[in-house]
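Below is a filled-in request sheet from our internal design queue. Each sheet records the structural input a requester submitted and the sequence that came back. We keep these sheets so that new team members can see what a complete request looks like end to end.

REQUESTER: design group, bay 2
PRIORITY: normal
MODE: inverse folding
CHAIN LENGTH: 395
BACKBONE (tokenized):
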């Protein structure tokens, strides 16, 4: 029996669901060893409190994959539909609207970040990066700047590419009939934003597996949270800037179809239903545009040739979404200094001769306690010699 599909999940996503689901099933069996796995799961879930709709969706996918795998391995695959229906019914009964004050932090994210808040956050992260040499603060500042223009999901930075004009992002929630990647033409944005995109992608480790990358984004999110607390603004999150970008595109007059392509949605209704409205979008003289079709790309080349010949160059700056490169940017990005490696602040290492001399003096080389004591004795000898050397140099 093939594993059930909950949307066109990637192999990495399926592996994550399986790992979490196996752990849940093991907990249920440990609590109720006398019951069948599906009954043990149902009993365990009955003891949980109310769950947000999104959490129920996560648990449903985890348990669907893991329970199907378990029943297939125990020759009960034909009973899976009935077994999972039992678990799903208990999960669905737990779905409830959680009061705002009781929601998890991720459910309290701000979706209408103002330009003043975004600007203040950027400068605070930059200040912290320059003062303490914290590379995660550098990355967080770059993400705040870039995400407000490109609207990526954080996981889509992994595998993203930039050629100086077009930002190519993987579609993290790819659906049937949807391309694996999407292209954002960002060439009209201020040059500082383009530099920030290139720098951000160069600093990211694209070889991290999905789980490792998710852990890294949590580190970046914590940098943003602490920065918001330091400057006393609302708690912005990584996703706050995806909302900003989508609202800004809408405020700039882009069509629902183009916005859907820009943010990786299959349906034109998704952005309007789940994301911030145009009224909270930031005012921009230039915004990203969906990647050009072959025909549009050919027309753009013709335009470039005519401009190169001196014909009607002024009309380019009149495009409603493309401004000249010398516009004042929303943020001023100065070059961050390269982070110097931290110096070795530990004890000075023993030389091979010192280690060998004290090793030879051990009565029983296999005794770890004596090894530790002798190494400590060697360090004291070294410290005494160093102090004597310093005093002799002083005379």
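RETURNED SEQUENCE:
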């Amino acid at each position: 029996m093939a594993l059930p599909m909950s949307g066109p999940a990637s192999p990495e996503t399926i592996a994550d669901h399986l790992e979490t689901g196996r752990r849940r099933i093991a907990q249920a069996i440990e609590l109720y060893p006398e019951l069948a796995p599906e009954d043990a799961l149902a009993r365990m879930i009955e003891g949980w409190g109310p769950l947000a709709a999104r959490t129920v969706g996560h648990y449903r996918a985890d348990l669907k994959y893991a329970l199907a795998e378990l029943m297939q391995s125990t020759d009960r695959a034909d009973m899976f539909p009935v077994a999972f229906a039992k678990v799903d019914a208990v999960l669905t009964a737990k779905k409830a609207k959680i009061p705002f004050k009781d929601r998890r932090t991720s459910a309290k994210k701000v979706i209408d970040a103002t330009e003043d808040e975004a600007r203040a956050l950027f400068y605070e992260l930059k200040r912290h990066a320059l003062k303490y040499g914290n590379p995660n603060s550098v990355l967080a500042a770059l993400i705040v700047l870039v995400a407000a223009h490109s609207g990526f999901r954080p996981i889509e930075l992994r595998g993203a590419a930039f050629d100086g004009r077009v930002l190519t992002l993987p579609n993290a929630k790819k659906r049937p009939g949807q391309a694996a990647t999407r292209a954002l033409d960002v060439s009209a944005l201020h040059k500082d934003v383009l530099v920030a995109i290139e720098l951000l992608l160069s600093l990211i480790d694209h070889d991290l597996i999905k789980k490792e990358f998710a852990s890294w984004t949590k580190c970046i999110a914590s940098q943003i949270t602490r920065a918001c607390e330091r400057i006393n603004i609302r708690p912005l999150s990584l996703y706050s800037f995806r909302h900003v970008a989508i609202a800004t595109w809408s405020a700039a007059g882009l069509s629902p179809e183009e916005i859907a392509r820009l943010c990786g949605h299959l349906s034109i209704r998704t952005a309007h239903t789940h994301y911030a409205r145009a009224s909270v979008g930031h005012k921009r003289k230039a915004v990203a545009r969906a990647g050009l079709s072959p025909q549009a790309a050919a027309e753009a080349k013709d335009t470039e040739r005519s401009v190169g010949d001196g014909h009607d160059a002024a009309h380019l700056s009149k495009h409603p979404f493309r401004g000249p490169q010398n516009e004042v940017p929303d943020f001023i990005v100065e070059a961050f200094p390269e982070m110097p490696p931290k110096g070795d602040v530990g004890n000075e290492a023993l030389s091979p001769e010192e280690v060998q001399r004290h090793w030879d003096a051990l009565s029983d080389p296999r005794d770890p306690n004596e090894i530790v004591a002798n190494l400590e004795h060697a360090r004291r000898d070294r410290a005494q010699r160093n102090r004597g050397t310093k005093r002799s140099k002083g005379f």
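SHEET NOTES:
- The first helix runs from residue 11 to 31.
- The longest strand covers residues 166-170.
FILED BY: M.R.
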